[in-house]
Amino acid sequence: MHNDLFFAARPEIALGLMALALLMIGVFRKDKSADLINSLSLLALGVAAFMVIFMSGEGKVSAFNGAFVTDGLARVMKALALFASALAIIMSVHFMKWEKMERFEYPVLIVLATLGMMTMISAAGLIALYLGLELQALALYVLAAMNRDSTRSAEAGLKYFVLGALSSGLLLYGASLVYGFAGTVSFAGIATAIKGGMHVGVTIGLVFILAGLAFKISSVPFHMWTPDVYEGAPTPVTAFFAAAPKIAAMAVIIRVLYEAFPAASDQWRQVLIFMSIASMALGAFAGIAQQNIKRLMAYSSIGHMGYVLIGLAAGGQMGLRGAIIYLVIYLVMTAGVFACIIAMRRDGRAIETIEDFSGLARHNKGLAFALAMLMFSLAGIPPLAGFFAKYFVLLAAIKAGMLTLAIIGVLASVVSAVYYLRIVKVMYFDEPRDAVSPMPMELKLIIALATIFVLGFAAWPGPVVTLAQSAIVAFL
To answer: What is the percentage of the chain residues whose pLDDT exceeds 70?
Structure first.
């Protein structure tokens, strides 16, 4: 493990400088710069991804007196977050033109949010964690309220801001308690300080930190903001919220629990199991009543985070590997579904209710087939990718002796299948509406690749499993 001040943080430093450059170009070029900034933002994310994958060294590299680390887990999770952010920009290019919302600030905010996520993923201390979290959150608040002409978008931004500020406060209060009783903010230092036994103050601090992080992955009971923000925010922003911040927050939870609080595993495992069961149950039952497709996807994402938490609660190589495989598959499925939602337009108007999908299969067989496969995969029907995502985490839970948790996971999956299959039924068996407008090339490509991934995963799961394994082996 070698320590070089800038070596570990090169991708972040480069991305930060590129974000500032993009901001300056946008300011001087004014309104004509949206397409240029979109392209340059994708280039910036690509350069950062290249640096993360090929230039961040082998093994564990730390910087800034150990406050910042790059290891296998960081590399994999950063690559996923960068990929999710790039998809959000690609999906929004035509959408922003259709909705007359073209602004150069949009891709710059996504780049800055991604920078925050990368900082969070590599944080090895409470201060670095909080800095990354706030940089990400501030950009996300603005993105939620991006559509200034829509009251729903303004309301989404405000709700997200108020509840987000509350969660940041909880996290900061927990961090200050942990620092007060453990005497250090570094994760390694906290682990050493609590080896002899947990002080009650540290336990309370850990609960507050977990509450703040649970808000970021929208797990129950900190999910209140999710349906309203998903419904109100512009659809590509919702797609971004559904994937990238969740990946970053899950990486942080893994790092906090397994690096800073391994000695308290009995205490936090109970909390994870409760959050997991509550999230799966709420995601399964609350989704049934939804009429708006984006609200439905919000409850779907709450449920899926419950499954990822099963992997974290089971722990060990198997559990954490299962959780990362789940996140990769969830990212692809979510991107595919949101690309379908963005592509669905009638008479120049975005459609958002489930009824609007009526008879889609008569007019547009390809889109209906892709969306049906993605819905079957989200429901966890074999032999699609979503089935294997659940299989890996449930198997880890059974191996860890958490049979009840695994059974609840299976039952929740059966209940949630109701609303995924309902969309398929509406598309194939209801009376058709007018045909939807033709969709742009980049959305076709994302939908096609997501569908191929979902269908082909069973035949070739190797790359995803190897990726997850490489993240975890180095970390544990």
So the answer is: 98
Q: What is the pLDDT of residue 3?
A: 52
Cβ proximity of 157 and 205 under 8 Å: no
C-alpha 297/C-alpha 226 separation (Å) is 10
- Non-local CB neighbours of 247 within 8 Å, separated by 6+ positions: 77, 80, 81, 84, 117, 327, 331
Residue 101 within a domain: no
Q: What is the average per-residue pLDDT within 418-434?
A: 89
Q: In this predicted model, what pLDDT tens digit does every residue of 341-399 receive, in sequence order?
A: 998 888 778 888 888 888 888 888 899 999 999 999 999 998 999 999 999 999 999 99
3-state secondary structure of 350: strand
- Greater model confidence, 445 or 316: 445
Give the chain's domain count: 1
Peptide bond between residue 107 and the one before it cis (omega within 30 degrees of 0): no
pLDDT band at 409 (very low <50, low <70, confident <90, very high): very high
On whether residue 178 sits in a domain, the answer given is no
Q: C-alpha distances in angstroms, 162 versus 56, 147, 157, 168? A: 37, 18, 9, 10
User: In this structure, how many other beta carbons lie within 10 angstroms of the beta carbon of residue 365?
Assistant: 10
Assess contact for 50 and 213: CB atoms under 8 A. no
152 found inside a domain? no
Q: Can you give the length of the chain in residues?
A: 476
* Greatest CA separation for the chain: 68
Range of the domain at 316: 272-476
DSSP 55-99: SS-SS-EEETTTTEEE-HHHHHHHHHHHHHHHHHHHHHHHHHHHT
For residue 87, is it within any domain?
A: no
